[in-house]
Request: fold
Amino acid sequence: MSRRTAPADLRVWDLPTRLFHWTLVILLVALFVSGQFGGLALVVDRQVLGMQVKIFLGNMDIHMLLGQAVLALVLFRLMWGVVGSSTARFTSFVRGPRPLMAYVGAILRGEVPATTGHNPAGALVILGMLGLLLVQGGLGLFGNDDIFSQGPLASKVSKDTSDRLTVLHGQVFLLLAAVVVVHIAAAFYYLVRGKNLIRPMVTGRKGADSLPPDAAPPTIVSPWRAVPVLAVAVVVVWAVVTKI
Ligand code: HEM
Ligand code: HEM
Reply:
């Protein structure tokens, strides 16, 4: 059977998927920092060059706002997985146990198979991260910091329950962080094995060296399609935290 030669490079990730990814990374770093230092709000309030400068760092209100932004972002990604570009769709990368085992087997044999979109093992980790983010954000809504702040749904449960959910919120974060470490380690493993998956997550384009020889160009939809999808996600989170 003759094989087509690989195209020079292909556009594999649409703009909304890339913006989703790197915004999520920034938000999670900010959430970690503000979660750790939320109770100790550092306030700088001084005169600099004739101007009054006020800086609030590690504010729990910021943490809760960013946490709700992550919830909206993940909700957006779930919907984008249905209406987004072909490589963003869950149907294109969520596969059964057989392809997963075959892929893991190939990795264990030292091969690094090329895929156009997410590989079956990466897909599993991605689903894990999205699920944990939903649980993490959901628990945060019921949390409290024992000082000034409480999540928008904390008053719906007893203080005792809210305290327990806050502890769980901290524990789920550790699980999430562990999965993220595996995810980043995998990205660097591929990199040292000659497959750069990180650059495509920045530029959208994957080079021939990281594509299967018979790769077909994915269907990339207009980024404008993401605008109403994001709006729906924001409204849903807003409705959940204000109307329940
Ligand atoms: C807080 C940290 C991170 C989280 C929660 C995270 C989460 C995710 C998610 C959810 C996806 C799926 C993208 C989609 O289809 O929408 C993804 C893909 C990806 N991420 Fe991350 N990520 C994190 C950090 C990083 C970092 C630091 C790097 C680079 C060193 C990275 C490299 C990648 C790559 C290369 C892909 C695409 C993998 C593939 O080609 O299948 N991620 N990440
Ligand atoms: C998915 C996004 C989120 C992440 C990654 C995250 C992360 C964290 C982390 C790392 C901590 C510190 C836990 C500890 O030290 O034990 C924390 C605490 C907390 N978070 Fe979140 N959080 C998120 C979403 C939320 C949301 C949506 C809310 C509420 C609207 C929230 C409210 C709180 C509260 C009240 C605390 C307790 C602070 C304290 O004990 O002083 N979080 N979060």
Notes: Residues 11-243 form a domain with the Fumarate Reductase Cytochrome B subunit fold (CATH 1.20.950.20). The chain has a mean pLDDT of 91. Residues 17, 20-21, 24-25, 28, 77, 88, 118-119, 122, 126, 129-130, 180, 183-184, 187, 197-198, 201 surround protoporphyrin IX containing FE (ligand 1) (CB under 6 Å). Strands lie at 9-11, 42-48, 51-57, 205-207.
